[in-house]
Amino acid sequence: MGTNVCHTNYFQHTIGDDEHLYDPNLLKNLNWSRTKSSLNPEITNENPGESWIVVRPLRLSDFDKGFLQILSQLTAVGNISKSDFEQQFWNMRKAGGYYITVIEDTRSKQIIGSSTLITEFKFIHECAVRSRLEDVVVNNTYRGKQLGKLIVLTVTLLAEKLGSYKMSLDCKDNLIPFYKTLGYKLEPGNSNSMMLRFEKIDPS
Ligand SMILES: CC(C)(COP(=O)(O)OP(=O)(O)OC[C@H]1O[C@@H](n2cnc3c(N)ncnc32)[C@H](O)[C@@H]1OP(=O)(O)O)[C@@H](O)C(=O)NCCC(=O)NCCS
């Protein structure tokens, strides 16, 4: 079996308004040593270069800090009420394996970046853990300051810490160079992404 010893059942902890989606302690002591060439100046999730930048797990209270508005810079979000948001937050936390990680500007108390790590338990490769990167976005007024790299590398190193044997992502062609600088590769003969979109089913 792999080294997936860090997967705690955080759902068993207390429930409150400022709950994190996952245990914030998992973001401590990530192994930034091998990402040195990707960042100039060097920053980490625990030392992000500015005192007003905080990198942390998504919180229930982030509905009021512009989290969904950030996602709408990535794709269509639709109308989501606070109760819809909270229900989905608890769905994710109950299911486990969802590591939505955000950057907050503590001066404005607004979420300015986000990325999602999703882990999947496998039987193959001796009960391995496989990871996927999803929903990477930085607020357009904060782009070009390494925050995109910071948030992607943070969840990538978290995936490694959780014992993942690989991590993959889907992206548009123009972002291939961005992800290449962070260590992601197009593997020859193994870099196709296929899609089947389902019609929305009318529940009535
Ligand atoms: C992609 C994104 C997260 C990058 O955030 P960022 O904070 O600007 O990124 P950084 O400052 O850390 O890195 C910028 C680097 O990426 C490159 N880059 C960023 N966005 C790019 C884009 N759309 N096309 C091409 N290159 C891009 C920059 O040229 C820069 O390269 P350099 O370091 O060689 O100068 C941000 O542009 C964004 O939120 N885009 C909209 C949502 C999106 O497309 N998300 C990705 C889904 S796969």
Automatic annotation (TrEMBL):
It catalyses: D-glucosamine 6-phosphate + acetyl-CoA = N-acetyl-D-glucosamine 6-phosphate + CoA + H(+). The keyword Nuclease does not apply. GO terms for molecular function: glucosamine 6-phosphate N-acetyltransferase activity. The keyword Secreted does not apply. Keywords: Acyltransferase, Transferase. Pathway: Nucleotide-sugar biosynthesis; UDP-N-acetyl-alpha-D-glucosamine biosynthesis; N-acetyl-alpha-D-glucosamine 1-phosphate from alpha-D-glucosamine 6-phosphate (route I): step 1/2. PANTHER family: GLUCOSAMINE 6-PHOSPHATE N-ACETYLTRANSFERASE. Belongs to the acetyltransferase family. GNA1 subfamily. This is Glucosamine 6-phosphate N-acetyltransferase. It comes from Psylliodes chrysocephalus.
